[in-house]
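Support request, please re-run this one:
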Amino acid sequence: MKFFKNRERNRENEAEASVKSADSTKTAENPNETAQTAQAAQEEVPETIVCPKCGKTVLKSVVKKHKYVCYECNHYFRVRAKNRIRMVADKESFEPWFSELVTENPLNFPEYEDKIAKTQEKTGLSEGIVVGKAKIYGEETVLGVIDSRFMMGSMGHVVGEKITRAFERATEEKLPVILFCCSGGARMQEGIISLMQMAKTSAAAKRHSQAGLLYVPVLTDPTTGGVTASFAMLGDIILAEPKALIGFAGPRVIEQTIGQKLPEGFQRAEFQLEHGFVDMIVERENLKMTLYKILKAHRPTTGYANFDPLRAEDNYEPTELMKEREAKAKPFKVWDKVSAARQIRRLASVDYMDYIFDEFMELHGDRYFRDDPAIVGGIAYLDGQPVTIIGVHKGKDLEDCGRRNYGMPSPEGYRKALRLMKQAEKFNRPIITFVNTSGAYPGMEAEENGQGEAIARNLYEMSGIKVPILCLMIGEGGSGGALALSVGNEVWMMENATYSILSPEGFASILWKDGKRAKEAAEVMKITAHDLKELEVIDDIIPEFGGADEDALSSIGNYMKGNMKKFLERESGKSKDELVEERYERFRKF
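Re-run finished. Output below.
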């Protein structure tokens, strides 16, 4: 900053010298005019800063208009608390809380009071966090912002106290909480008292969660140490800014401790997203709208059929073309259905999700290990009713199939799905799953990470979830890997889908020691929709109108949508215990 001040001073001096030289003959005659000219010249000099990422000199006013993002390299500058509040809260809606709290010196650490006083004078802040109540596009929320200028946003006892009180008051007033995290971790001068703030804030977050309320931390650069290991990672939905440093031990600590050079991008937001610890990375320009959408989706609701009345008369009939195609279509033989269910061109879960639902917001990660691309899930609206939707996605082309492991979920995929289902239960959202998998991934790493436990846990937890669950078999329903997402109050199946204990090839190999007898096995396994309807394994058959291709998407999607709404209307009058009992009895009969 000294460099910037000197450069500004030099420019000012140059401007003054230029004015004095040009107007030297006028000085004696009109000194006021000369002074005004010099002042105008100074004001024309734009205020600049140097971007620490690209090293280029940029105009501060333009950077401010870009939400404090470098317009040369897209580097995210750290944002002061008051500016952050201005960027995300409605104008004049922020009401500060707990400003009266005073920082003390619990360990009598030398010169700590002086350091606090100087920091307060320099920043204009009483402590390292500002908390209060605000509105985001009219949605009321508790908002907290850590300011890194105040001792690197470290968590002393006042920071911990403000966060704890914010959760407590939010619980009393039944409000969501949004916290912008930016911290070096614990405050060293407060030692063990700072450490205790981790437990205190986490306990307050737990009570807020148990009251069924929403908590969204936004991780900015940097979020490390005791803040990461407490309230920063305990959100229902965790957002992060691009390239933000997020981790427990900082890179310098890791390198000095183990003597290992860390790879590029280690501990950055993108790393955390890939490893399952962050739901979304959000560009700063989209942050306010994203927060609004999250708040809106978590408004308290009663029942499960809060549909837009303007959509009550919507027509869900198939098109005339699809009716004609269905009438002309020849019924598939069993092996034809096996082949049709495996086609890469077959409509995928994401196709139905995109057609049927509005404002889908994808959420990522299992919070333990990784984000599995084979499972796509998040929050959306079914004609105004918030729902959680989860789908197995095989991929749309060979490259996409490879990335998604051909729709064979790993343990982290099942754990992500379960996390989203438990989240749906907390916020009283119905759950809809789309299943198309040849089975759970049978690789070595899946076994190392507990594939069997992950599937078992889903079966165990889904049986007791206290919101309606609807499961749709849209392609292959392979063994326990499919069942792990299919413990529903109702299970529907597409006309040419399959659902079986294992593949026909595997069945033939085990029973007849001859995998070439797969077609014969398919005939006796009872794996088609019509077979399973007779066995009462499924509740409804979804027509395909001659084949589940792009031409049929609107007709199939309309059939699904209309019947989904009827399902939710049926379930809406039932108590939570009745929903669980209904699901239990459905599987108890087999």
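The longest helix spans residues 2-22. The CA atoms of residues 180 and 342 lie 45 Å apart.
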